[in-house]
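Input record (Table S2, row 556):
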Amino acid sequence: MAGPVEKKKRLGDMLVQEGLLTSKQLDQAVEHQRAKGGRLGDILVEQNHCTEDQILSALAKRAGIPFVSSLSAYGRVSADILSLISGDLARQWGVYPLSREGHRLTVALADPFVELDAVDDLKIHTGYDIAMVLTSGREIQKAVESAYPAETKATDIEGISHSDSGPADIQMVTITNALLGNAAKMGATFIYLEPTPLAVQVRYRIRGQLQKKPNFPLAQYAPLVNHLKGLARMDTADRWLPQDGRVQGVWGGRALDVRVATLPTSNGEKMVLSLFDSSQALPMDLAKLGMDSETLLSYQGFLGASKGLVLVAGPAGSGKTATIYATLAGLQSAEKHILSIEDPIERYVDGITQVQARSDLRLTLASGLQVFRRLAPDVVMASDILDVGTADAAMETAGECLVLSTVTAPDALGAVQKLIEMGVPPSLLADRLMGVLGQRLVRKICSNCREGHTLSLRELMSAGLGEKEIRGAKRAASFSVFRGRGCGQCMATGYDGAAAVFETFPMTDNVRRLVAEKASPALLARETAERVTLREAAMKKVLAGETSVDEALRVH
Ligand SMILES: [Zn+2]
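Output record (zinc ion complex):
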């Protein structure tokens, strides 16, 4: 980047070129600047050689950005946009936010050469691409002073001034409400507060993407941590061990379950707030998960047992969590004593005692189950069976009450195989297992570019589908199916969103005998050939126009 002297020369040369200044006037001004200091532009204005607007307009031209003599043309800037840049930063950098379109934030600044570095900082700070408009320092100052009153300094967390008068705890309540309220309104699922030696970095996770928010002053962080820990019923005195807690409330118009976790770092406690929308995020109703009535009845049959193990199986990311919480909620309405040990707790269900596993305290899923057995539960949940220790504890507990858990496996039959591979005695599994619900996600066809086509039975079969899979859904010689052509709305994928497909694996007497005998998966599949498999469930969604043949073929 050019040095300051060179830049000033350039400004002068430009003004001479534009015919606004003679070379002699420029030399005088530069001489004056050498002797007394100050900015060349200011000197030129002072000596009545140019108006300020002429100088700024030349600067803008040089920088290739628009010049405006007055910011009033932009009208009143919404609080939403103002909050993207704190008052402190607006003053420090001499910038003022004006408008926002999509991913671009337009800011006014007073000196394009000096502030070019600030633009990169602004980009990082706000997460927006920055478009610049040049105006006078006076205009910036006027706008900043009126938008960010001096006595309420940094609005680092949107809408909150850290120097609000009043007791510190009231201030912390306000900050907490602003933090959670903004996150809720933006649809954030996580808030990360990460102390660094200089400030506290604040980031939101919105639709999977991290978004940086204005930093939070370090001086206010300890009281905020204490406040949040108090709210979440955590030990405020302990700053050296990871902790977690929970708080519920309404923020930003959403009823939220907030899980608060702390992690000690060399700069202080990092905090992670997970936001769960208790009103709508997961359907807490089995009937709303999208199971067909046959599968739902079969699954509810498993859950009707007074003891035994019921498993939900699927690959990672197949929606098992949604299913298991909906199941818990459904069981809870039957007024049973339900205890749950989870790692991590991903949803809170009213009326159920949920315990977070803490390996640092030797409270594992397995040891949690052992503790639960002494508390005479009707139903117990362990979030997942990952190892033989948990599997053994689940089997043991299933001899006394109903145990619900998940297994990461391709499908229902895969879960049975996996438990046996883990070392669960086949005869014990055959005795205790009530049934397995298998599930997968299929992508839904984009409604914007959906198009129909017809495939014959032969064509479907040559695509890789079995006759039973097709006929199980419908008897016909040809089938109208759909696919997404690909459009801007679905990023040319042809898909938008996902739906779960389900299967059940019931433990009939014959199946129990085969499991006890450690029969091959093929034999078990043949024995249960009558059930609706994942592929068949997916095929039903194909014929209902929800998903494509290609998606159904991915389910096997
Ligand atoms: Zn589309």
